[in-house]
């Protein structure tokens, strides 16, 4: 058991680390050379196109304006200056709602900390050998401040129970207010959004196969019949995975070509050459530009054939479609009603944003989905409870002896004293570390196998799995001894009331561990987050090694989205710690509060300056956040019940047993009250928006607007490719894409003809814009 | 432990009892005097208006045609003669689906019994001291045939596990087929239904109050805006509970008046008189006809005032309304989408059939509903686990001493020897028996407090609660020792794996108890059901004592509906017994099979000849039936796991643990696959029906058809009353109800005017029909 002094030392170390990170960040961010690492969001939004610098050559890379070094901590007030509505405009509602989770933590635990300090710490301190806050306190055990210091059977436990009640009510009140606020923010956000394809479009899955009729006709017939006045058009979904691979290869070649053309432009006296062998290291020497042009031409022919095959082959049309309606009302009705008599056919739901669609999962039939869900649930369960078994097995293999057997030529190196001791201390944990590093990816793959159709849903599901893993292996695993599956076994053989008791009794003893965890993972971790050491190094490495064209540099700069699947579950672990220790060891709360405040600053800065969200789900993750905080409250209640029952305050159990019931009821009420705002779209809002639009822009052509949106991205990128190609071979550009778009057999309905016309128009418009940019 | 011989004796007794009941039934049913007790359904459907009899006066009461006595068991083939579609026509889909539950029982347990007898009984028998079926078997213990006879750690348990797998798969396959069949029957039934008001009508609850606008206007405005092309009209809901009481009183007086007028008609020389005092026993003697006419007139004036108050007072309009649409499509869309941005306002759902509406619960706000649900769940939990406490308390009071203290004048009687012993044997159980008799009523009241808006839902919810009670107190209570709350306590202190073991180990020992239970409650109980002793006695008593008019006789004859809340849960207990004992003691299965077959005969007869359903929910209870049978399967699997683990076949646990996972997955799949057919209405079907109707009867006036349906039944009955009054005072009949229908302040929109016109028209049409019948 660590004393307050030990904690103080640990805190000092972590604070110093965090400050070192912050200092490094403050120095690095004002160097122009790092501008694209620390402010990529502004480049993407177009507000910045090159780093601000002071003129001369050195100033291009290093900040020579020494005044800015004096104000190096000014990112904090800067991060706070932007108001929430501006953040929503700038970075989207997802980011704004994400920041609110940290504020929610402050709101819940701030007052809780004050009450706990005023009421519980005096009660705890007076319970043991110590009378009131005395001088000795600083050097005494931290347990003196916790519930451990209260004697068994003491009536003082009623103070703890009362505070638990107060805390639960306060947390629920805050959760309610926050849910309310986020729900209305979401509705406002959706209402204020400009006209978007997903507002008019519904994704229909499990389209049945009708003999002698093409899938497209089936969809057309069904929706014309059942949504006669609202149906507009639809977009079939093609199975274009193979095609996508070829397109990717072509893009790579195009990139090489651009690079070589650029090179040639800069030094026109020397045509660039390359060797055709492996990695360009050996083989025949050829003219690079000609070589790549030849390669691209070959690929294009391949693509043409493949594309024709996709459009012609009915096997490539998947039993799903994006169906568009002529009003938001029509789309809402279709998305929220049952279409077919067979409830597993014609499943409709809102179409995700076009950039949010996970195309590979669109065509999974219903039965397969059920089985996948079962298999993945079992796999997640196994992963959470038994992951340690294969790791231990790998560890036993990957020791020094095993290593020497596999790579015998390294033996002399391994046998060196300091390397040996390093490896011995390092290798056993390596498998575990690699596993933990791979874990989010594994969970994401599992979610993909489960068959969700949007990246936003995939990330939410991954977050759920990750939370479960953290809860069992980090939180419960730290408290109880032994591995998770050993615990599982012992729990199965313990009574229902025994389980919380077993865990509850060791909770106060683990307080110091969690305080250290908060400082290392939370404080120093957040400072690491703002420093962006990995992206910084990666950006400069890429810039030196592989960046050849402007497109490459943009790719290297790409800041990606906030990592919701990892960040949100980790964050919720802090809620859990706070809820559990609020009553047991209140001294932990200030550490959590500092984490929440600091993380809020950091992420506010990151959201404004760095991250660029891949999709916008309009805070669709909030119900999950809310549910998991409620789950945390329930866990804390059960653990307190267990803890108190070991303190022989047995008659407190019925008193505390009321709390979970109340909490669950509150959750159920919130679910009914707010969750529909995140899952459905009220007709009232659609009518308002439809009417508004009719007034503001009467007679708009929704069809042309909608029909372009849900083209398969590969077919779309193929068009880009094609048009780039058109730019190269100008004589073919006059009749863009005509050879490729032949009326597909069976699709010769007037509807389809219209659709094809639209595609042709699109080709033309894209071509025109590319052409213009080429000419200017 | 009873031997097979004991079981045989018990079976004999019960078979004799059942046959005695059947004989009594066969004799009583062919007496004309009992015709209205045993064939009321035919009277209600209009196929019969008076008993068939053989002419003379005695033949009116007693069957003198002795030929019919010879064929007294012919009700069985008669009951089977009617085909299922005819039953649906005759008694509705609810009854037909109810009968299918019994057939499902036969389908599941028939093959299961064959397999168990062929495989398990030989295995069990060969396990112990006995070799194969020998002569001694008949007199030996019944346990020799059960799993108890297999030695611990025997590999033979794999036979039991395999049969459990087989049984589960077979049961799931049958459940799937049945769910499929019932779902398509429901869709066909709904599709074949003629035009009904509920197809066009949606019940909207939690209408918000808008300042300065009447509720009716609010509803009108909201739906005209959000369902502009589909909205037709709406019917406000009035709080008319007080009014209903007065109307009831008036009906009683009207009945007396009719009776006296009839009396006077039959003996015109003597005007009937009555005394005004208590029960007509003393007081002033008056002319009955004049007296009642006077009383009715007074009441009518009171009703008039009250009615005006209801229509004028905005406090009497409840925040709910029945909104009708001009097509089924429009109504379906409204019922299945979210209307308002605030998801707890404007809650829409299908309107129940007019006769199914439970009017009192229409206006409960959402928050109140949540709280009611919580309170009732807690109450049900307390009732199930702690009901024995107050009963024991009452029992301790209601012993002989207590009785003598309360009614001292009865002491001499109580002290008589045989009466004393009778009371001593009887009184202690009396409180429990009264409680069990009251239980369905208590549970129904609880469901009513929960706030459901239709009788069908109320009955389904009551059935769920009753099943829970039976499961804990009858099934588990019989197996484990001690009262339910003692068990609850011990379970809380036992490990999760210990619970099924504790119960599992005593299962084989209780087989004889359940066999007896099946014979007493099942076999004899069914024979009692068909005998209808209580309705028979009540009908004749009522006929003798209180039946005065034709209306009274019809009331006395009223057979009511099948008692779903009691029958279905009891029935499901047999599924549970079957599932649990199929593997453990297969000898129990034939008893259950006989019950299912016999009950099927009996209820087929009753459905055809007796019961008259109050509402038609189109088999909406089936998902509950399915879910509970699945729950029974899960319980049986866990109990078998527990039982086998006591048999030290410990390595069987993982093998069996797969079964619940598979069963739950199957359940989830079925829920997705079929439940929407019971909760939602597919747009495809509405379009078909709308189109069909447009072809068959173009240009029908849905508005006039719909607007009459959802008038509050009391206001409707008031109109009847009023028109009867008009008949009496002819001069006022020319301007029917004009004085009462004044435009209510604030309701003077054109829509409301239309609505009022409809009401006036309705008055006129009802008046016309009554007037015509009066003239002819």
Question: Please, could you describe this protein's structure?
Answer:
Two copies of one chain form a homodimer. Chain A has 776 residues and is mainly α. Helices cover 67% and strands 4% of the residues of chain A. Chain A contains 33 helices and six strands. The first copy, chain A, has a four-stranded antiparallel beta sheet. Chain A has a two-stranded antiparallel sheet with strand order 3-4. In chain A, helix 7 runs parallel beside helix 25, helix 8 packs antiparallel against helix 25 and helix 14 packs parallel to helix 19. Chain A is globular, with a radius of gyration of 31 Å. Chain A starts with a helix and ends with a helix. The C terminus of chain A is likely disordered. At the A-B interface, helix 10, helix 13, helix 14, helix 28 and helix 30 of A face helix 10, helix 13, helix 14, helix 28 and helix 30 of B.
Strand order of the largest sheet of chain A: 2-5-1-6
Overall form of chain A:
globular
Percent range of helical residues of chain A:
55-70%
Oligomeric nature of the chains: homodimer
Helix/strand/pairing class of chain A, anyone? mainly alpha
Strand coverage percent of chain A? under 5%
Rg result of chain A: 31 Å
Helix segment count of chain A?
33
Mean pLDDT of chain A: 78
- Terminal residue distance of chain A: 73 Å
